[in-house]
Amino acid sequence: xxxxxxxxxxxxxxxxxxxxxxxxxxxxxxxxxxxxxxxxxxxxxxxxxxxxxxxxxxxxxxxxxxxxxxxxxxxxxxxxxxxxxxxxxxxxxxxxxxxxxxxxxxxxxxxxxxxxxxxxxxxxxxxxxxxxxxxxxxxxxxxxxxxxxxxxxxxxxxxxxxxxxxxxxxxxxxxxxxxxxxxxxxxxxxxxxxxxxxxxxxxxxxxxxxxxxxxxxxxxxxxxxxxxxxxxxxxxxxxxxxxxxxxxxxxxxxxxxxxxxxxxxxxxxxxxxxxxxxxxxxxxxxxxxxxxxxxxxxxxxxxxxxxxxxxxxxxx
Length: 316
What we know:
Blueprint: E1 39-44, H1 48-63, E2 68-73, H2 76-85, E3 90-94, H3 98-107, E4 111-128, H4 129-134, E5 160-164, H5 173-179, E6 184-188, H6 192-204, E7 210-215, E8 225-228, E9 250-258, H7 259-264, H8 266-274, H9 279-290, H10 296-306, H11 308-311
Parallel strand pairs: 1-2, 5-6, 5-7
Antiparallel strand pairs: 3-9, 4-7, 4-8, 4-9
Helix pairs in contact: 1-9, 1-10, 9-10
């Protein structure tokens, strides 16, 4: 969400943000740039939707195009640095990072746009639907202070709690709370996985909560949530991070490729540019990984086996 400027994006080896994304921008992939090797290095971000992208792309690159795929887990902004340096070849889900786009795409031209992922992302504030049904006016930000007492936790002290995920995600929430004069404290769970655990626990106990969350995300199928309406988003209203007082934008999620790889990456680069699927597709794979506990490659195989008409269009 961005990340989603956002945040929020997935380790092929690790589920979601639970283990914390390591900054590996100074450590080149052991396969990246190997002479004559048919290898591709993908940036793996720390949320399960992005994990689903990488899992399916990796499976098809390996099984249909004969490449070896290496993955590197990197936080959102450092991933742009790694991509510019050629330490990774592609980012498959970016939620909008204007500063990095200007620096690397427009100015340095070390990164090339890879096209739409096909999924539209949106960050917002959400309450559980069971609480919204009991208190319909909570879905207007102007009424949030009315419920601050009910949303207090040990972590938020005397204020209501606004639950966020990883501090590495780009979020406007602290500025929003301050600029909208809300009686709330932003509390970071530490990761997407930890945030999901907390939300599920609240839901199990039917407790009210207010959380930063985003779509698409498989958790909505397990814990229905209703968005709180913030002041409408207008172009430029989030230009100054300290003065943000508006909702997050709706963001068509984008892919980015290292410029050299985009030009000389052959069928792998062409395939990744063609990779485009729907929110429903992504959620199917995400749910298999996060809820059904399938290994990413197993989830990818199940999706690939039943969606040939979709992925065959991506092949060069």
